[in-house]
Amino acid sequence: MFAFLLRRLASLLPTLVLVSMLIFGLQQLLPGDPAKILAGEDQDPTVVAYLRAKLHLDEPLPMRYAHWVGGVLHGDLGESVRTQQPVLELISQKLPVTVELALLAFAIALAIGIPAGIVSAVGRGTAWDYGANLFALWGLSTPNFWLGILMILLFSVQLGWLPASGYVSPFEDFWQSMRTTIMPAFVLGNAIAGVLMRHTRGAMLQALSSDYVRTARAKGLNERTVIMRHAFRNTLIPLTTIIVVDFAAIIGGAIITEHVFGWVGMGTLFNKAINGFDLNLLMGVFFITATLSVLANLVADLLYSALDPRIRVVSKS
Questions:
Q1: Which of the residues 55, 159, 171, 229 has an alpha carbon 20 to 30 A from that of 87?
Q2: Quick check: 286 and 293 in contact, CB under 8 A?
Q3: Is the CB of residue 248 less than 8 Å from the CB of residue 293?
Q4: How far is CA 10 from CA 4, 14, 47, 248, 298, in A?
């Protein structure tokens, strides 16, 4: 397993390098001169020259990228031009908030999507199947910002059950934290639940039509044992990648949802970086998000090898 992990890490490093180069290059395509924008309306030539030197804008693009990579290798993502705080410090403050939201959203997605997919596959062609597919279609086609606004109008404005915005740490007040988290978590988990339902249904239909399931039924095993211990267990491998990668997608998708519900997570940092033309902060947010996605693929590979050791054998050849 350790050798398998080393091989996967070695293959992910070039991916991270290419992703960082792509993000850094695309960032340079943003319209406007960063130094002049940051200098304000007066655009004092002395201030503009200082900002150019500080941001290495007076150097060629490869040199600017080399400066940034050198900082990353030393654990330094640069300094926010607007707040004069280290980017890594800002991200370390906001990332746990987004991860908390993503974890609850993912728990909701798993609790809804996988059971719905199983019920849909077992009851293929029935009202349960059509209802589950309708739910999946609704989840996939509903914009997060629209659903979030509707939930605020219903549960906060009309019913007064939940706070419309804000964030409370679970270490300060757990139940109040749950009250502030449940709506944005449901909005995020809603679309992922639809994806999980469709993939679970497809994998279960394939498993239920396999020879080993027919053999299990021929032995006289009850239907629940056949479905859960034989059919569903064999759907875990194809579902693993979807589950892990979707968790990384939730973190990326939290940006819009956090803005709707007034959260102070990675979405807040992203909005500040865009509105303030803070290139170092913007690069840091993009790079950390991309790194989480790459690590999610590594976790999926490790789970794959744990569920099916034959994958490790194949990877050696």
A1: 171
A2: no
A3: yes
A4: 10, 8, 43, 21, 11
